[in-house]
């Protein structure tokens, strides 16, 4: 009997995903059935879809992108939205902004421009442990602003491991150097002992021979201590440096994505939620997000750097390695060290800046400039028009998506080598060569493109649209009225803390897709500026520093033999708290003038303008329907 029960339990554990997949819709099926014949049928049906998608995203019983496709099936079948209306949500402006940024990231990766940037930063900063950690985190964070955090981590970790091998070589060199120094000290002590023995006439050792034996014995013990003790300490220090370097690379990849609108899928989800729930708003463009996200990212990165330096390098290296003998060998080495030689060798293998790299770099700078100067809202011209290069086009027609497509389309026909015809022909070209392949081709894009993110973000947008159309948003707005007396500062602190630690257990994109629409309706219900909750909550989704399941960069680092889950939990918990503290300080200081948070915009007033009598009548009707089903 016990064996049978144990077998059943083991079977349930092995197939828990299949069980959750089938049981979840069955358990919550009474919700749409109960309200099927009432005026709140759409509200109940939409709540049913939200619960199913939340469970599926949290447990990952289906791939995240596949769960994002459920609205196309469930919304039409439950009578919430037509399939045609739902499908439009998967081709929104922010979705194609993500597609364009991913395609440009593929161009950067294809020609190794990201690797050149990272290695160049390391050579410029240096390879002392504290400088090496700074260089790796800075380079990783910068790349993560434009490339996905997963791709950035996958690229930087092999580089970090190669440098770590150079650090191990430096440790062995330090051990041999200490051994030689110990031998020299021993010989010097022996000579000094022989000289002092001539005047030694008292005690148990009265002859020079007796004193020489004692000196040799003491020198042997000193040599053993100098040879083994510092060596063990240096090896332990090198292991800590390796852990700090790997974790710092992983954390910087998550932190860097906070700075730009395209740096993380959660940032784009926030934009889509704002566009879906507040269609009359101006939305958040690249420059608007960057003005808040970049300084916040820099603050968190700096604090994370000093925190990891203190945790893994110790106070001696934090205050200056020259003050402590135990890490002097590791910290003093620079261009002569093996780690520096490794970085320099990898950089030399890249060769001079190639023509494709120059082309991609030119388009990258052009894209950033066009994004920044597209719509300078802080400069107002006549007719209430903002300055920027879009001033010459129809107002509101050209967006960040148009900009990125304008830049990446030429990459599909721009040649990957200089032209060699007519006046541009080289002297060594005897015959006309074939046309050079373009910087980008569709086969490369289709292989490396993360199409799942498109469906995931589209699913989040469709979910927010369904919540609004079904009337579930109205109900949520009325329910959230009770939170209107809660202090805004405390509310933001509570929300960011909950989101930060929830994303440790569930991937950040599903958390954002579920939480952001709810927060938008919460802000609307309590008459708070929506950005006051949405922006810090979105950035808090990137505070996934504790567990490998939180995001792919964490899993990549834990797969290394040097990093244990305990190391990530120990360092990530306090880093989560640091991130929560910084985002709350940021949104309550320079966030206010940037987003004008002290005033409620007209497009965000929502239920504040609703008639109280209408609200009470709707609430009474809902209560009566609940007590008397079938009416």
From TrEMBL:
Keyword field: Membrane, Transmembrane, Transmembrane helix, Transport
Highest taxon, organism lineage: Eukaryota
MF terms (GO), sorted A to Z: solute:sodium symporter activity; succinate transmembrane transporter activity; transmembrane transporter activity
Main location: membrane
GO biological process: transmembrane transport
Annotated compartments: Membrane
GO cellular component: plasma membrane
UniProt membrane topology term: Multi-pass membrane protein
InterPro entries per record: Na/sul_symport_CS, SLC13A/DASS
Alphabetical list of Pfam families matching this protein: Na_sulph_symp (PF00939)
Transmembrane region(s): 15-36, 43-59, 95-113, 286-308, 359-376, 397-414, 449-467, 479-499, 505-523, 573-595
Record family assignment: Belongs to the SLC13A/DASS transporter (TC 2.A.47) family. NADC subfamily.
The name this protein goes by in its record: Solute carrier family 13 member 5-like
The organism of origin for this protein: Branchiostoma floridae
Lineage: Eukaryota, Metazoa, Chordata, Cephalochordata, Leptocardii
Gene: LOC118425957
